[in-house]
Amino acid sequence: MSYKYLLLDLDGTLLPMDMHEFLTAYLRAVSTRMAPYIAPDRFAKCLLASTQAMVENLDPRRTNADVFWDDFVGRTGLDQVEILPILERFYREEFPQLAPVTRPTPTARMVCTRAVEYGAELVIATNPIFPRMAIEERLRWAGIADFPFRLVTAYENMHFCKPQTHYYQQILDRLGAGPEQCLMAGNDPEEDLVAQDLGIRTYLVVDCLVSRPGGGFRRPDHRGRLTDLADFLAESVGRKKNAGAN
Ligand SMILES: [Mg+2]
């Protein structure tokens, strides 16, 4: 085994959280901020619908941000030029207050450190439905914002979302990598394990395992807690060093 790239999911993987709890708190906070412009319930519904439009988009010419804003403006009648600075202020000033809804662990840092020791490059393969600044904020919560990530997928720089295989293909293209050079670790049997369809090996992290009723037909190559992933990488470091010594 010799992985050049370790692809890591963020929410529920490197940053343990109850996804439902986090999304509820996030939607409440952002809807409240936007209340002077649009009724909170309607805002939340439109936000989710436009996010779904992003997830379903397979047009390689449009970024996820393009798809989101086209759909959102059409749906709400709001002016992007007026709304964008307010949303950016929300992410700067209020989004950080959602940190206590998550349960950061030092193991995230251990995983990244071991991967770097192993000689792998790190990719944050989080579903790119958020602006970069919201992802960087969550990297800070997870205690890993200072790592030299080769790529962090965000809605500005990606054209597809999980669970589309196109998302993983775009990562491979960006890296100039073959699937056999990558290991994808995540907590979602659908969104993260779909990487297998391209031949990428997978590690299912079960601490905050997403349950997919009727799904779960994909079998990960490896499976364990986040600490097990750290150990798995440590063993790989050991093997690599021994191999180098011989
Ligand atoms: Mg996840």
Notes on the structure:
- This protein is of the alpha/beta class.
- It has helices spanning 19-33, 40-56, 64-76, 80-93, 107-118, 132-141, 165-175, 226-245, and strands at 5-8, 121-124, 151-152, 182-186, 201-205, 222-224.
- Helix 5 (107-118) packs parallel to helix 8.
- The longest helix has 20 residues, at 226-245.
- Bound molecules: magnesium ion (MG).
- Magnesium ion binds at residues 9, 11-13, 186-188.
Spell out the blueprint of helices and strands.
Blueprint: E1 5-8, H1 19-33, H2 40-56, H3 64-76, H4 80-93, H5 107-118, E2 121-124, H6 132-141, E3 151-152, H7 165-175, E4 182-186, E5 201-205, E6 222-224, H8 226-245
Parallel strand pairs: 1-2, 1-4, 2-3, 4-5, 5-6
Helix pairs in contact: 1-2, 2-3, 5-8
Question: Summarize this, please?
Answer:
This protein has 246 residues and is an alpha/beta fold. The chain has eight helices and six strands, in the order E-H-H-H-H-H-E-H-E-H-E-E-E-H.
Specify the biggest β-sheet: 6 strands, parallel
**Whole-number mean pLDDT:** 94
The CATH H-level superfamily of the largest domain is: HAD superfamily/HAD-like
The name CATH uses for the topology of the largest domain is Rossmann fold
Structure ligands:
magnesium ion
Percentage of residues assigned to helices: 40-55%
Number of structural domains: 2
Strand content range = 5-15%
Q: By helix and strand content, what is the structural category?
A: alpha/beta
Q: Count the beta strands.
A: 6
